[in-house]
Amino acid sequence: MSADVARRIALAAQGFADPRPVGEPTRRHLQRVLSRVRLLQLDSVNVAVRAHYMPVFSRLGGYAPSLVDEAAWSHTARRPRLLVETWAHEASLVPVGDWPLFRSGAKKPGWWLGYTKIAQDSGLVEDILAVVEELGPIGAGAIEKALAGSGKRGGDQWGWNWSEVKKVCEYLFGAGVLTTGSRRSFERLYDLAERVLPAAVVAREVSAEEGARELVTRAATALGVATETDLRDYYRLRPARSQQAVAELVAEGVLEPVEVVGWGAPAYRHVEARAPRAVTGGALLCPFDPLIWERARTERIFGFRYRIEIYVPEPKRVHGYYVFPFLLDGRLVGRVDLKADRAAGLLRVQGAYAEPGVDEARVAVELAAELRRMATWLGLGDVVVTPRGDLAPALRAVVR
Contact, 13 vs 224, CB < 8 A? Predict the structure, then answer.
C-alpha cells in the first residue's frame, strides 16, 4: 500500500476520522475514544495540561475532565469504573477488563522489580498492606505516618525511611497487589487491587502467550497498520513474545502482512482497519499522545521529526519545553510550545513553528482556532503568542 493510505489508516484507527460531538461530550463519547486508543498515558508534567486529559480533547474537543476522573477513580453501580492504573506503555489508565493482561508476563520486566530486595529485606510489605487495608485509599507519606504512629516502627528503625516506603508501595503497585484507588492533587492513593477491581478481573489468570496475543491485537486495533516493533512498543512487550504473537495472529487471519512504500520494514494491517478517503480538521497533540509517542513511527508516517525537550537545557532546546504538534487535515503541519498561565488566565504560545512547504496563512488560522478552543476548555481567557518561531508572526496576527 502507499504511504498515504497507511497514514490515513493510522489516523482512523486513532479516532481522528471520527466526527467530534456536536453537543457536550458524554461518557459514551469517552468510551468511543477508549475503544480506539486503548489507554491514556499518565505523566506528572502540568505546564499546559495533564497528559491523560489531552488525547481525549484532541479527539472530542472541549469536554468535562470529570468524565475521565470518574471513569478512572470512582465507582458506583450506575456508573462503574471504566479505567484502572497500571504499567502499560508507561504508567497508564487502561480498561478495567484489560488489567489481567499486564500480569501475564508478556511485558518487559518493570523497573519496579529493582525494589524487590528492599521489599523482601525491609519487612515493610505486610505492614504497608495492613495500613492500606485499614485506611486506604492512602498516599505513601500517610502510610509512613501511620506506621510511625502505630509504634511498630520509627522513622530511623531498621534503616527505612519515606523513600523506602514509597519504593515498596511502587513494588506492590507494579506487582498488581496494590493499585490506585483515587488521586488527590495527582498524588497516587494506594488501595488493594481486590477492593478496586471486580473479583472476576482480579481472579482471571492469563498465560504470557495469551497476554501477548491479546495485547498485540489491541495494539493493532489502535495503530491500524504497524511494524512489529510498533506493535511491541505500544505496551512495551518482550520482543520474543511480541514476535510469536504477531506470527500467530497472521496465521489466524487477524493481521494481514503488507508492504508500505518507503517504510523499509514489514508491516501488518489489522483486518478490520479501514482507510477513509480523507481525514479533515485540526487537533493539537500532547507529547504523550499515542499517535506520536513512538518517535520513529511518527517520522516514518508523517515525515515529522519530533523530540521532547523537557530534559534539554533551555539554551539547547530547538522548539521549546512542552511542544504540541499540530495535526491538520491528516498531516502534521506545525508545532507550538504551550504553557497554561493559570495565574494570569492565559494560554501562552512560547514558540510557533511551521513545517516546510505548508500554507502558513491557513495553518495560522486553523491553529489559532484550535488554541482558542483549548484555552476555553482549560478555563483560560485568552491566547498570547510570543514572537519566537517562524510561524509566530502569522499566528500573532490572527490571534490579535
Answer: yes
Percent of the chain with pLDDT over 70: 97
Task: Mean pLDDT check: name the lowest of 39-53, 113-127, 212-226, 252-266.
Answer: 113-127
Average pLDDT, the chain: 94
Alpha carbon distance 361, 63 (integer Å): 28
Q: Residue 161 above 60 pLDDT?
A: no
Count Cβ atoms below 10 Å from residue 387 Cβ, excluding itself.
10
Give tens-digit pLDDT for 73-129: 999 989 999 999 999 999 999 999 999 999 999 999 988 889 999 888 888 999 999
Average the pLDDT over 295-318 and give the result.
95
Q: Give the strand pairing for 267-270 and 225-227.
A: antiparallel
Reduced to 3 DSSP states, what percent helix, strand and coil does the chain have, rounded to the nearest 5? 45, 20, 35
If we measure between CA atoms, which residue out of 238, 282, 265 comes closest to residue 107? 238
The burial of 319, by beta-carbon neighbours within 10 Å (0-12 exposed, 13-18 middle, 19 or more buried), is given as buried
Give whole-number Cα distances, 58 to 99, 256, 309, in Å. 25, 29, 21
Question: Rounded to whole angstroms, how far apart are CA atoms 52 and 114?
Answer: 26
Lowest average pLDDT, out of 104-113, 266-275, 366-375, goes to: 104-113
Interatomic CA distance for residues 179 and 175, integer angstroms = 9
Write 77-85 long-range contacts (CB < 8 A, 24+). 79/27, 81/196, 81/197, 82/30, 82/31, 82/34, 83/34, 83/40, 84/179, 84/180, 84/196, 84/197, 85/42, 85/173, 85/179, 85/180, 85/188
Spatial CA neighbour of 171 closest among 271, 87, 105: 87
Residue 151, pLDDT score: 58
Q: Which residues contact 128 (CB under 8 A, 6 or more apart)?
A: 143, 147, 165, 168, 169, 172
Q: How many whole angstroms from its chain centre is CA 381? A: 27
Amino acid, res. 256: E
In 3D, which of 108, 242, 97, 102 has the Cα closest to residue 175?
102
Q: What is the CA radius of gyration of the chain?
A: 22
